[in-house]
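The following record pairs a protein chain with its ligand, magnesium ion.
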Amino acid sequence: MPLHAPLDALTFDLDDTLWDNRPVMEHAETGHYAWLDEALAAWHGTHLDQNGRYGERFPLSAYQARRLELAKRHPLRRGDFTWIRERSLSELLEEYGLPRSAARMWAAAAIDRFLELRHHLTPYPEVETLLDELRSRYRLAAITNGNADLTRLPLAAHFPVTIAAGEMLAPKPDARPFLAALARLGSTPSRALHVGDSWREDVLPAWRLGMRVAWIDVHDDSERALPAGVYRLRHVRELPNLLQRLDSTLRD
Ligand SMILES: [Mg+2]
């Protein structure tokens, strides 16, 4: 595997690579479910007695359990988290007593709310400048399993190519989203480096394809031995140094 070709393309994971995703998801998770409960209570008004309060009959834990169960029932959809959420809500709302059409409408409305909250995120402060500099030297793509829609974020301007791998029904670690990104960038694995935090979904598939990998080791998993071509970073802000190092090795 040639590790010495000059790099011309960089592919980026998003969640936990360009921003801290845990608080974003916690806020979106509780926020849209509470919104649904309140909106239903307001809508039902005096009829509330009949069915009881939705959030009391189906607490957040019931929704989370249903998502796990649904992902098992539909393994091909396992990476399409938005579909799993919406379908789970729809099932629970029917069990709550809503007719199917109303259940679907409320599930869709709650998902809209979730997606809105899910984009209330703040990239690490260095990211904007970093991408701005990198895109003058490399072609950039984003590859995500999550449901962050880049086009809703100002960062989109830096990425000519975005691959929503979950919605392609081929979530990482499947190799296809990587190959699709490289094909659209006009690059090849030996000339590209992937940047991501997940050992299983970012590092292994990219490395097996012959890409170089900058692993953002957010959990400080320093025991792990790194294969040739995989480089450990603590934070994406260290990427320019790594690229410079790789560049100077080539010139030696
Ligand atoms: Mg990630």
